[in-house]
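re: ur msg from earlier - yeah i can do the nicotinamide-adenine-dinucleotide complex, just paste it... oh wait u already did. ok heres what im feeding in:
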Amino acid sequence: MTLLSGQPFVAILSYHEYCLILRCDAYAMDLDKKSKVIIDLTGKIVLVTGSSSGLGAAIAKYMARAGAKVAVHYHSGKDRADEIVNEIKKDGGFAMSFYGDVSKKDDVMKLFSEIDSSFGPIDILVNNAGIDGKRELVGDDVPEDWEKVIQVNLMGPYYCAREAVKRMKPRKSGVIINITSVHEYVPWSGYTAYSSAKAGLSMFTKALAQELSDYGIRVVAIAPGAIKTPINKDVWGNPESLKDLLDKIAMPRLGEVDDIGQAAVFLASDLASYITGTTLLVDGGMALYPDFKHGG
Ligand code: NAD
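and the outut:
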């Protein structure tokens, strides 16, 4: 594809066979010329943790569609990660798979140095990897289970952000996106570790954004509601619990992984250049107290 200044936008539309086209040259951002506003991450290197499945896989694909080189990270299931890489390549994008346990500092350091060698230093980090943990009531629980959730969902993003910051600060640019949850706001009985980790990740987002604001680095969070992925298949896979879940959402549907992929490319892009230290809820109104929808 060649993009010439003044070239009609329609020429870009033919490059990818997507309904949503995410790539263009900077010229397209010049509103005086009435060009379409679209998202361009060409030349950016992105790491999406836990991107062999669910939300992470969708975020990785959207980043690649916007022109970024994507490190598809996996913890288990190299095959699935390689499938995502192949899908991205088939769509004309660039990706490679990388292994690591985000709850282990040494694994994370190794992961980043492998990405350095293959791609160069990352520009965008998406801290997506996470687990729900078991449903356990405090007192009847096993402390090691609590620790594990905190280790993956809070220490993991910290270890990754720490490595990302080392690479972003000298270049005075970068974006860190933390995937929290509606449960950074909404308490979840039986999942105190998960709720605490996500609320902690939300405050980490704010404090780190403040710390990095002089370095051209933005830190933001996305709080998904109920999105159809393997993590909650036991809920949406069962008609009774699906109905119960839908009753908790203001809009009449579950979220799709695309809802999160689209939010992530926007926040990663310069369209969001004045947004830092905040959480974008992508939850169809789950946090709006849907019980009050019909008054009461
Ligand atoms: P998922 O199970 O498909 O994805 C989780 C990913 O994290 C997997 O790829 C898994 O391999 C990886 N992972 C788990 N432990 C890891 C470890 N120790 N090291 C590295 N990677 C590890 O589920 P998902 O729904 O796609 O979840 C992605 C993120 O979104 C999670 O942080 C989750 O808490 C959050 N979230 C999901 C929903 C939802 O409804 N699906 C809602 C709110 C928040």
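cool cool. The CA atoms of residues 69 and 276 lie 23 Å apart. ping me if u need the other ligands too
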